[in-house]
Specification:
Radius of gyration: 23 Å
Distance between the termini: 40 Å
Structural class: mainly alpha
Shape: globular
Amino acid sequence: MNMNKTETYLDIFLDKSYIPFVCLYLNWNVIKGILTNCFIFFNIDETIKEIISGRLYFIVFICFLLYFIKNYKKYLKSAKLCITIIICYMLFQYSVSVNNIDNETIKDLFQVLSLNFILIVLLLYGIKDINVFIEYLRPYCFIAVFYALSELLKYSVTKQYDMTFSYTLLIPMLICLIFAIYESKHFYLVIFLFLEIINLICGSRGSILCHLICFLLCMFFYSNKTRFIKWIFSFTLILFIVLCFSPLITNYLQSHFNNSRTVNLIISGEFVSHSSGRDEIYAKAWNYFLDNPIRFSGFYSDRLLLNQNHNKGFPYGSYAHNFILEILLQFGIFAIPFIIYFFYNTCRVIKILKKDMDWANKAFFIISFSFFLGQLSVSSSYLISPAFGLFVGFLFRYTRQRNEINKIQRELV
């Protein structure tokens, strides 16, 4: 009897705590950013922050391990999921051996691949109720405000641009925009605009592409004709006001935030046109692909090729800044069928989602796809950003959910 009680309590704990832990894991960098800035303000040793991070990863891993043991049949039933994970680790082993990467770097890369892709995919796949998941993301809209304020205070002292700040804020900002449009709550729109202003001052412009994709997808999935006209009118009005007061805004930005990289690009009129060297990287990456289209050198090989132009070693940041170019450099024409299937499957999911009555599934897609396409088409790498794991995790989970619904419908017939 006691054993049954213990099992029941454990089941209840795992069911109740699993989704909050997943949400915390996905937004941990927001919490970590607040802690980091506080440690800077109060001159506290940052090793404490790393200890806290290590404890969180350990707790999330244990929580997932217990959850996996309890629900292992659900994971093993997905042949595609199991095969994907096995192939990833096989390709990782192949890549590090072919590219002669040193042991210390292998350790770091293995950790990033495991935490930012494999674990995220597995965590998202295990979510039972997507509506509860979206609701647990809501508080991070408000936590993000504290993070943004702490970053603004840090910027006022250091005057340093921080690209990671923009992408750390991304999930809370996308959630704010979704709630603002779906629930028609202006309060969330105010939070979004407040975070966007601080993002422009302290962060990078790349995340704005994610925001734009999110807005367009919200219009596609949630808006009827009346709501669409209302939102287009509202943003047109805001843009008109900004243009009318642009001289005053420009003078204010120049006098108070002249060290901001993004603000300087706005003032100079190069906010869109300035490529930050990406055009050169794209040209070199494409030429490398054309020189040897049947190359199959594995993960990270794009960095080795591009770093040759800068005489840098492997760990440095010369990567393709576009996930399609990155995959083509790593696997050549052998990657083309995968790329075609990936986008075909994405289009198929969009078509199904348009008819799906569950708004939370659409919200999850909007978050993951906006993050994935917005960031990885112009920045970062699919091997280090959580964006790819977030979107792949959505695809696996949504496919599982649709299969379960179809099975129930067939049994009822």
